[in-house]
Amino acid sequence: MIRSAIVQNKVVRALIRREMKFNLRELNTKRKFFYPLAEPTYGEREVLSALNSMTTYSTTMWDKVKEFEKMFGDKYGGEAVMVNSGSSADLLISFAISEKSGGSLPPGSEILVPSVTWPTHLWSLIMAGFKVKLIDIDPNTLNFDLEHVKRNISKDTRGIFIVHLLGNMGDMRGLTKLCKEKNLVLMEDCCEALGSKFDGEYAGTFGIASSFSFFFSHHLVTMEGGIILTKDNDFAKRCRLLRAHGWDREVSDPAVSAESDIDTRYKFVAWGFNLRPTELQAGFGIEQIKKIDQFQEFRDENAAELEGSINRNSKFLSTMQVSNDVRCSWFAFPIIVNEKAPFSRKQLANFLDQNGIESRPVVAGNLAKQPATKQFPEVTFGALPGADYIHQQGLYIGIHPTTKRNNLKKVVQLLNNYCDQW
Ligand SMILES: Cc1ncc(COP(=O)(O)O)c(C=O)c1O
Question: Which candidate, 398, 413, 394, places its Cα nearest to that of 333?
Fold first, then answer.
């Protein structure tokens, strides 16, 4: 392996450290929000790793990707296939379950998806040729409503691709039982739930495969990036093929390939995309995964502090309920304005904005209401009262994996002051 002197150099390291510290301070003084949705969590080690990849001319998918996949799979329980985003992870799962890529579901099969999720979760299934029925969420947990799932299973339903929204989890015991009884393929979008557990088991280990995102605001950051986790070797193999052109070089035994009349250096055995991550992203991942448990502890502490304020103001506000079975790895902190509150969600959002607290709707709100969804007859839905409620009454603010207690105290103070004035 080529050695990079740059990453060993004390002067370079000190320069990077100083520059990052200075720029972070600059960022903090110039930005509009004193409490933004997300804060940088990477440091000198991630940057040095990226530099090392660049100065040794090893930037495209190679050893660091393999190393990070191994670390991730060992920690969270399965085989991991890294890709360039969480959306790409959703896309590959959707294609890998399809008969056209060697999976079990025929095109046109109906898959159930919760109506409050990130749009690419939904588009992935449509792009892979499936029909999607949106199901309602429980407005208390923001996650799938098991009773609604049961009511919506038809003779055409072949699978369910749930999301663990904002790190919370629904009744996984009930859902896995139902999927077994009805012979449904279960998939999990864990892009907001790295580290969450149900009954002691990690999110992402209940179905055939799960997706994770490593975007800037997520639990673990690789700039852009994502990963698929599965316990099914054949599924992982299909994802590896789909990730890189359908090219067999990552998955085939060369001795077998050599018997083919195709030049084995360029042998394509499936259709595919190019959704490969870079070594720079994997280098970030390798450093970040070492810190992930500490990040999660900080997130827990910060969520508890915000929950305290919601309890104090429970006449007007609530947050999501986490059942005793769930160990929630908080992605963000939802605030639901009670319907009977004297102020609207919009008024609260404006107040937060004017006072330096960045907020967003609860993910995309009710996806059935988004203009893009209306373009696709493959997406069907009935009444979605839980999703409608969250669409109208919900927003979220950030949960940071750092201990900026003063910032958080200021957020709590502002929330309390706002509620007290009504
Ligand atoms: C639930 C969910 N699924 C998928 C994604 C897509 O991830 P990415 O932004 O890495 O493409 C996100 C992104 O925020 C998400 O929240």
Answer: 398
Among 161, 215, 221, 284, which is best to mutate for testing ligand 1, by the most ligand atoms less than 8 A from CB?
215
Please tell me the predicted confidence (pLDDT) of residue 264: 85
DSSP assignment of 40-109 equals: ----HHHHHHHHHHHHTT--BSSHHHHHHHHHHHHHHTSEEEEES-HHHHHHHHHHHTBGGGT-SBPTT-
Task: Determine the pLDDT at residue 8.
Answer: 84
Q: What is the pLDDT of residue 227?
A: 99
- 400: annotated active-site residue: no
The residues near 178 (Cβ < 8 Å, ≥ 6 apart) are 146, 149, 150, 153, 184
Name the residue type at position 344: S
| Among the listed residues 119, 220, 123, the one whose alpha carbon sits nearest the alpha carbon of residue 167 | 220
Dig out the tokens for 20 from the structure.
Answer: 């990052």
Among candidates 335, 334, 338, 336, which has minimal Cα distance to 315?
Answer: 338
Q: What is the dihedral of CA 96, 101, 105, 109, to 10 degrees?
A: 90
pLDDT value of position 263:
87
- DSSP-assigned letters across all residues of 158-212: EEEEEE-GGG----HHHHHHHHHHHT-EEEEE-TT-TT-EETTEETTSSSSEEEE
CA atoms within 13 A on the CB side of 344: 5
pLDDT tens digits, one per residue of 49-75: 999 999 999 999 999 999 999 999 999
pLDDT given for residue 250 in this prediction: 85
Handedness of CA 49, 54, 56, 59 (dihedral sign): positive
SS3 state at 258? coil
Protein residues whose CB sits closer than 6 Å to any atom of ligand 1: 85-87, 90, 117-118, 120-121, 163, 189, 191-192, 213, 215, 226
Beta pairing partners, 237 = none
Helix axes 44-55, 10-30, angle to 10 degrees: 120
Q: What is the pTM of this model?
A: 0.97
Nearest CA-CA partner of 340 in 314, 303, 322 = 314
Catalytic residue among 164, 218, 219, 400: 218
The distance between the two most distant Cα atoms of the chain, rounded to a whole number of Å, is: 78
What's residue 258's pLDDT? 62
Q: Which residues of the chain have pLDDT under 50?
A: none
Q: How many Å apart are CA 59 and CA 51, to the nearest integer?
A: 10
